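Lab notebook: predicted structure, single chain.

Context: the supervisor wants predicted structures on file for every construct in the current expression panel, including those that have not yet been purified. This is the next one on the list. No modifications to the sequence; it matches the entry in the shared construct table.
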Amino acid sequence: MNTSTFTNCCFDGVKLNSRYVTHTFSHCSFRGAKLNNARISKQCNDCDFTGCNLSKAIVNYVSFIRAVFPTPILAAKYCCRFEECSFDGAFFMTVR
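Prediction complete. Output recorded below exactly as produced.
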């Protein structure tokens, strides 16, 4: 998944623990996906992360555009751009 572009794809429930998840995702669903300890980078446009496990994810230099995060976002390192995203019910914890 390191050199691909995904459009209109369903990754619901997928387990990508401790994987590199890079490049561009457009109109994709990650509902209930396991992305804990994943390294995420590049761009996510119009993606749904409802119920997605992002605990301890390393999220560097990602542009999230119109993404939906209606779930707790725990212990993730963020150096990202969020544009027109929904965070209803989500919370952030800082990582030291």
